[in-house]
């Protein structure tokens, strides 16, 4: 069981940490494109401003370009757009307040399902052990019976 | 014409009711002829739905605009080849298409069901199929009738949605819908075995084969959709984690889990209960897809089939949950595995972990789809959950699934030892390490991407190693190496077909890693004869060609792509870099001499008047290393064209995975002749 716990701990930590890595070594142009694909177009159905050709998106992209060139950080730029268009302008929920639920739930789902499957493996294995024990005792008993019968027959 | 269509639908309904009643009454009262006539009546439903479909197609071919559906989705100038696409272009037609696929595939299934099946099982199968078909028939007749007529017949139709006028649309929507609806077949086979009290494993072979088919079709359908989305603007690239994409992916993930765990039941008679649960979940998720697609409460870019029928499909989904899990719980006490797990280090438990990971991705995706609704209801604040969220939460788990693809298959059934497994993994691990160090040496800094590449290498070598060891003994006995290889594959087709599918997933992973981590994008506006330099390419804007047709105003931006020597432009490159840009514009007089032409691009931008909708088609220059991808966003008044350009590393591997996936699926499906003869 120690091994299983160790493996699952490794698995969880790998997943958790690789999910947290944010690589932000980007040129301004790439930073602009990355943010453009995180900001929703307010008048389109489920499109980002990156993919949309609507006038609003074109204006927002111009603004975004200016902000990126002013060396604002990605987070500041996100907040700039949230202030003006509301929280649903960003393509993923923020990691504060109620929205934290959106981010915590995957961790809960993962841990819960992992525990269930490990528990299943463990209990399936245990019942196998019990069965083995049972057959062993049975075999011993049968041997004993056979021995008794043999003895009786000899008599 | 519309009368014939309506009559076919009504006839289909009557046949369904008849077959439902007669197989049940026939078997209860032991009147064999009645049961058989019920089964034949079920076969006839495929004829009536075919007749209804042909009627609709005929109306399209003859421009019968008295039928509303025809007038809404075609016009006189539409290329007749697109009639097939127009058939399922809207809600009503696509439902009729779904009915057609359901009735035909279910009839074929009943016809070819193994002779060992008792009639009591077949009776339940026919009953369940009839009820599901009846639902679609009633929806078609009363809710979304494709044969509704117009009182004022228009001179011409509205035409087809311009997004659908693409070669991929001949196969993407029909395959996707067929894949989703045919999940019904393995589900019905499984649930009917439970209803009829057949607790043997008779059903698993038929369920496995039909499940692979529906899973394969759904997978290919999704991939073709991804290719389509890649070539046009506005759909967030090849995969956008759009709600409609997610609801197709979720059942596919569950079916993937099922195809793995059914092997355990086949070989070791374990996981019986779990396999039934998986099929139930897949079926319910397919119904969820129907609901979300046809009027669900989420916003999507796929709005072709949206309707006011959301509530109807929601109720049907709830009914399927109650039905599927009700039957399951009723029969649960009599379901038991024959064997138990012998060791944690066994193929069985590694497949259980595989299932756990697939279900986790599915559950997290489902959570992402419903969270906006949840947030709206809970506090009246709307949030968006889109690609960045899903990439972050699902990405790492998908990577673990890939790693497990290299480890799982080397673990033997029943039990094993660490030593045994590590022995198999040493060589793949060394290769993975070499890849990682190699990438580090050439100056790569993206740790996650590097680790992902190493893992792809790890799995690939692990599979090749198994093939090598498997065919080596034959080779040693004097057989030619390729014969040895084919004989090995032939010896265990499900297993090696599975490995080939694994390789296709590695190709897919290459494309995903390349495009997600190493993509370079740039927006520029070019005058004629100006060029833009990005990476090692120079793209010259040669000419603009107007191509106005009666349905659209289109403009082509013809371009030539040159391979450049970056030394010639080092000054300009540095200048751009200092400005934070990854591309720069060159005038004609600034060009270096003798640059080699490597291709021509002809992307276009069209505006469809009837739909007040723009449709933009990209120009792509592919190689096995990267795609040069150009999309004309707009033609400006000053004569310039505004372009979005990107370099998409390894993108072609996304599409290479498709044929490999099909090959693997077909090998896994190919019947084992020898085995049957042996029986």
Question: Can you give me a brief rundown of this structure?
Answer:
The complex is a heterodimer of chains A (155) and B (679). By secondary structure, chain A is mostly helical.
Q: What would you note in describing this structure?
A:
The complex is a heterodimer of chains A (155) and B (679). By secondary structure, chain A is mainly α. Chain A has a domain at 100-155. Chain A contains five helices and no strands. In chain A, helix 1 (2-20) packs antiparallel against helix 5. Chain A is rod-shaped, with a radius of gyration of 31 Å. With 679 residues, chain B is an alpha+beta fold. Chain B folds into four domains: 1-159; 166-408, no CATH class; 409-518, no CATH class; 520-654, no CATH class. Chain B contains 21 helices and eleven strands. Chain B has helices at residues 2-28, 32-61, 68-73, 83-87, 91-111, 119-143, 172-181, 184-195, 203-231, 243-268, 272-293, 310-331, 347-379, 387-407, 418-441, 447-476, 481-491, 493-518, 570-578, 652-669, 673-678; strands at 520-526, 531-534, 537-548, 552-563, 583-586, 596-601, 604-608, 613-617, 619-622, 626-635, 641-649. In chain B, the strands form two sheets. In chain B, strands 2, 3, 4, 5, 6, 7 and 8 form a seven-stranded antiparallel beta sheet that branches. A four-stranded antiparallel beta sheet of chain B has the order 1-11-10-9. In chain B, strand 9 and strand 10 form a beta hairpin. Chain B is globular, with a radius of gyration of 28 Å. Classes of the chains: A mainly alpha (155), B alpha+beta (679). The interface between A and B is large, with 58 and 68 residues.
* Unreliable residue runs of chain A: none
Give the overall shape of chain A: rod-shaped
Rg result of chain B: 28 Å
- Strand fraction of chain A equals under 5%
Alpha carbon gap, first and last residue of chain A:
52 Å
Name the largest protein-protein interface in this structure. A-B, 58 and 68 residues
Largest sheet of chain B: 7 strands, antiparallel
Per DSSP, the total helix count of chain A is 5
Overall pLDDT of chain A, averaged?
Answer: 83
